[in-house]
Design a protein that fits this description.
Length: 145
Amino acid sequence: MNLEVVAMFEVTALPAVNATLNCIAGILLLAGYAFIRQGRIEPHRRCMLAAFSVSTLFLLSYLVYHFEVGSQPFTGQGPIRLLYFSVLISHVVLAALIPPLALITLRRGLRRDDSRHIAIARWTFPLWLYVSITGVIVYWMLYQM
């Protein structure tokens, strides 16, 4: 079998991998939030570091896919098209904010700069969760619907 065909098959599987990574990141974010609400700092820390790691894997996988394959056009028509692009635009704009916000939030948390960590986490958490959830929705609308 031609190696290019094998490589392309694997690359074309990346959107599903990316959606899975987004889903896992969302679950880890929710678990981390639940832990900190219970005052369980160590499990919170582990979940947030894992969410950051999974999101980093997502970003690498996303970049590889789009470098190798390019963009997938949305073919839906009518009101669903407006909904798709509304979700996509909000997702992309907020996704660009997450890496710096997450890095600052993690740094403050790891240094136990608690008041500043909490102040930025109040913004980072809901935005990051929204991006994780809408990433799965965009995948579903683009590749499964």
